[in-house]
Amino acid sequence: LSLKFGDVGNLKGLVIRFLLTTSYYQLSVQNWFSLHKLQLLYNHSIQATFNATRIYAPASYSYHCEHVSSLQRYDALLIPSSANDLSKLWEVTFTDFQIQGFNIQEGHFAYAKDCATFFSPAILMGLVMSLILLLVLAYALHMLIHLKSLDRHYEYKASSAYFAQMKDNDMGDEKEPLRSSGNESDELRNQQFYKIYI
Protein backbone atom coordinates (compact mmCIF):
# COMPACT_ATOMS: atom_id res chain seq x y z
CA LEU A 1 0.00 0.00 0.00
CA SER A 2 1.68 3.23 -1.18
CA LEU A 3 0.94 6.76 -0.04
CA LYS A 4 2.04 9.34 -2.62
CA PHE A 5 2.09 13.07 -2.08
CA GLY A 6 1.78 13.96 -5.79
CA ASP A 7 2.80 17.51 -6.62
CA VAL A 8 3.08 18.88 -3.07
CA GLY A 9 6.21 21.06 -3.27
CA ASN A 10 9.35 19.32 -2.05
CA LEU A 11 7.38 16.14 -1.25
CA LYS A 12 6.77 15.45 -4.92
CA GLY A 13 9.13 12.46 -5.01
CA LEU A 14 8.29 11.12 -1.53
CA VAL A 15 6.41 7.82 -1.21
CA ILE A 16 5.47 6.04 2.01
CA ARG A 17 5.08 2.33 1.39
CA PHE A 18 3.25 0.02 3.81
CA LEU A 19 4.03 -3.69 3.46
CA LEU A 20 1.02 -5.63 4.76
CA THR A 21 0.70 -9.37 5.27
CA THR A 22 -2.30 -11.54 6.00
CA SER A 23 -2.38 -14.82 7.91
CA TYR A 24 -4.95 -17.32 9.06
CA TYR A 25 -5.00 -18.16 12.78
CA GLN A 26 -6.79 -21.33 13.81
CA LEU A 27 -7.25 -20.12 17.38
CA SER A 28 -9.41 -17.17 16.30
CA VAL A 29 -10.75 -18.99 13.21
CA GLN A 30 -10.23 -15.96 10.96
CA ASN A 31 -7.68 -14.08 8.87
CA TRP A 32 -5.63 -11.31 10.43
CA PHE A 33 -3.59 -8.65 8.69
CA SER A 34 -0.50 -7.00 10.07
CA LEU A 35 1.74 -4.13 9.05
CA HIS A 36 5.08 -5.82 8.47
CA LYS A 37 7.30 -2.96 7.32
CA LEU A 38 7.18 0.72 6.49
CA GLN A 39 9.49 2.13 3.83
CA LEU A 40 10.26 5.72 2.92
CA LEU A 41 11.17 6.21 -0.74
CA TYR A 42 12.41 9.38 -2.35
CA ASN A 43 12.80 9.52 -6.13
CA HIS A 44 12.30 5.75 -6.31
CA SER A 45 15.15 4.94 -3.91
CA ILE A 46 14.59 3.54 -0.41
CA GLN A 47 15.72 6.04 2.21
CA ALA A 48 14.59 4.28 5.39
CA THR A 49 12.96 1.02 6.45
CA PHE A 50 11.12 0.44 9.73
CA ASN A 51 9.87 -2.83 11.16
CA ALA A 52 6.36 -2.48 12.57
CA THR A 53 5.41 -4.11 15.87
CA ARG A 54 1.97 -4.77 17.35
CA ILE A 55 0.11 -3.27 14.39
CA TYR A 56 -2.43 -5.94 13.50
CA ALA A 57 -6.18 -6.53 13.33
CA PRO A 58 -8.68 -9.05 11.93
CA ALA A 59 -8.77 -8.88 8.15
CA SER A 60 -12.37 -7.68 8.19
CA TYR A 61 -11.46 -4.81 10.55
CA SER A 62 -9.26 -1.76 10.28
CA TYR A 63 -6.49 -0.78 12.70
CA HIS A 64 -6.53 2.57 14.52
CA CYS A 65 -4.02 4.22 16.83
CA GLU A 66 -3.64 7.76 18.14
CA HIS A 67 0.11 7.71 17.46
CA VAL A 68 2.20 5.35 15.36
CA SER A 69 5.75 6.56 15.65
CA SER A 70 9.44 5.71 15.76
CA LEU A 71 9.82 7.88 18.88
CA GLN A 72 10.02 6.36 22.35
CA ARG A 73 7.60 8.87 23.85
CA TYR A 74 4.89 7.43 21.58
CA ASP A 75 5.73 3.81 22.47
CA ALA A 76 7.89 3.30 19.34
CA LEU A 77 5.76 0.97 17.24
CA LEU A 78 8.15 1.58 14.33
CA ILE A 79 11.69 0.27 14.86
CA PRO A 80 14.62 0.89 12.47
CA SER A 81 15.29 -2.31 10.55
CA SER A 82 19.05 -2.16 10.96
CA ALA A 83 21.59 -0.35 13.10
CA ASN A 84 23.61 0.50 9.97
CA ASP A 85 20.56 1.73 8.08
CA LEU A 86 19.82 5.43 7.49
CA SER A 87 16.50 4.86 9.31
CA LYS A 88 18.06 6.18 12.52
CA LEU A 89 18.31 9.60 10.87
CA TRP A 90 14.55 9.68 10.30
CA GLU A 91 11.78 10.35 12.80
CA VAL A 92 8.37 9.19 11.65
CA THR A 93 5.13 9.93 13.48
CA PHE A 94 1.57 9.36 12.25
CA THR A 95 -1.21 11.07 14.22
CA ASP A 96 -4.69 9.52 14.31
CA PHE A 97 -3.40 6.63 12.22
CA GLN A 98 -5.90 4.22 10.63
CA ILE A 99 -5.17 1.53 8.07
CA GLN A 100 -7.00 -1.32 6.39
CA GLY A 101 -5.38 -3.35 3.68
CA PHE A 102 -8.04 -5.93 2.87
CA ASN A 103 -11.82 -6.37 2.55
CA ILE A 104 -12.50 -2.67 1.94
CA GLN A 105 -16.12 -2.01 1.08
CA GLU A 106 -17.45 1.16 -0.56
CA GLY A 107 -14.23 3.03 0.15
CA HIS A 108 -14.84 3.25 3.93
CA PHE A 109 -12.91 1.88 6.85
CA ALA A 110 -14.46 -1.06 8.67
CA TYR A 111 -14.85 -1.21 12.44
CA ALA A 112 -11.47 -0.31 13.97
CA LYS A 113 -9.42 -2.37 16.38
CA ASP A 114 -7.74 0.21 18.62
CA CYS A 115 -4.14 0.02 19.77
CA ALA A 116 -4.95 1.00 23.38
CA THR A 117 -3.33 -1.60 25.59
CA PHE A 118 -5.00 -3.05 28.68
CA PHE A 119 -2.54 -1.26 30.95
CA SER A 120 -2.82 2.24 29.55
CA PRO A 121 -2.31 5.08 32.08
CA ALA A 122 -6.03 5.87 32.25
CA ILE A 123 -6.96 2.24 32.90
CA LEU A 124 -4.21 1.89 35.52
CA MET A 125 -5.49 5.01 37.31
CA GLY A 126 -9.02 3.62 37.26
CA LEU A 127 -7.80 0.32 38.72
CA VAL A 128 -5.89 2.11 41.49
CA MET A 129 -8.92 4.26 42.38
CA SER A 130 -11.17 1.18 42.39
CA LEU A 131 -8.74 -0.59 44.71
CA ILE A 132 -8.68 2.39 47.10
CA LEU A 133 -12.49 2.57 47.16
CA LEU A 134 -12.70 -1.17 47.73
CA LEU A 135 -10.31 -0.92 50.69
CA VAL A 136 -12.33 1.95 52.20
CA LEU A 137 -15.55 -0.04 51.77
CA ALA A 138 -13.98 -3.13 53.36
CA TYR A 139 -12.75 -1.05 56.30
CA ALA A 140 -16.19 0.54 56.76
CA LEU A 141 -17.91 -2.87 56.70
CA HIS A 142 -15.38 -4.18 59.20
CA MET A 143 -16.13 -1.26 61.54
CA LEU A 144 -19.90 -1.80 61.21
CA ILE A 145 -19.58 -5.48 62.03
CA HIS A 146 -17.33 -4.62 64.97
CA LEU A 147 -19.85 -2.08 66.30
CA LYS A 148 -22.64 -4.65 66.00
CA SER A 149 -20.72 -7.13 68.10
CA LEU A 150 -20.10 -4.44 70.72
CA ASP A 151 -23.84 -3.74 70.87
CA ARG A 152 -24.54 -7.39 71.53
CA HIS A 153 -21.86 -7.40 74.23
CA TYR A 154 -23.39 -4.41 76.00
CA GLU A 155 -26.89 -5.87 75.71
CA TYR A 156 -25.62 -8.91 77.54
CA LYS A 157 -23.96 -6.78 80.21
CA ALA A 158 -26.86 -4.38 80.54
CA SER A 159 -29.31 -6.96 81.90
CA SER A 160 -31.55 -5.97 84.80
CA ALA A 161 -29.96 -5.70 88.25
CA TYR A 162 -29.66 -9.00 90.00
CA PHE A 163 -30.30 -9.34 93.71
CA ALA A 164 -29.75 -12.59 95.49
CA GLN A 165 -32.88 -13.98 97.03
CA MET A 166 -32.94 -13.76 100.77
CA LYS A 167 -33.89 -16.78 102.75
CA ASP A 168 -36.57 -16.58 105.42
CA ASN A 169 -34.33 -17.93 108.15
CA ASP A 170 -31.77 -15.21 107.33
CA MET A 171 -34.43 -12.57 107.84
CA GLY A 172 -34.95 -13.69 111.40
CA ASP A 173 -31.23 -13.67 112.10
CA GLU A 174 -30.58 -10.39 110.45
CA LYS A 175 -31.63 -8.21 113.38
CA GLU A 176 -31.65 -8.92 117.07
CA PRO A 177 -32.78 -6.31 119.56
CA LEU A 178 -30.31 -5.20 122.21
CA ARG A 179 -31.61 -4.03 125.47
CA SER A 180 -29.65 -1.59 127.50
CA SER A 181 -30.74 1.21 129.82
CA GLY A 182 -34.17 1.50 128.29
CA ASN A 183 -32.95 2.26 124.76
CA GLU A 184 -33.63 -0.21 122.00
CA SER A 185 -31.05 -0.73 119.30
CA ASP A 186 -30.51 -3.29 116.59
CA GLU A 187 -27.32 -5.15 115.90
CA LEU A 188 -26.67 -6.28 112.35
CA ARG A 189 -25.49 -9.84 112.82
CA ASN A 190 -25.46 -11.08 109.28
CA GLN A 191 -24.10 -8.79 106.57
CA GLN A 192 -24.48 -9.65 102.94
CA PHE A 193 -22.86 -7.81 100.07
CA TYR A 194 -24.72 -7.49 96.80
CA LYS A 195 -23.25 -6.78 93.40
CA ILE A 196 -25.14 -4.89 90.75
CA TYR A 197 -24.13 -5.29 87.10
CA ILE A 198 -25.04 -2.49 84.73
TrEMBL record:
Pfam families: Ac45-VOA1_TM, VAS1_LD. The chain crosses the membrane at residues 118-141. One of its GO terms (molecular function) is ATPase activator activity. Signal peptide: none annotated. The keyword tRNA processing does not apply. It is found in: Membrane. Residues 117-154 form the V-type proton ATPase subunit S1/VOA1 transmembrane domain. Coiled coil: none annotated. Belongs to the vacuolar ATPase subunit S1 family. This is V-type proton ATPase subunit S1-like protein. It comes from Aptenodytes patagonicus (King penguin).
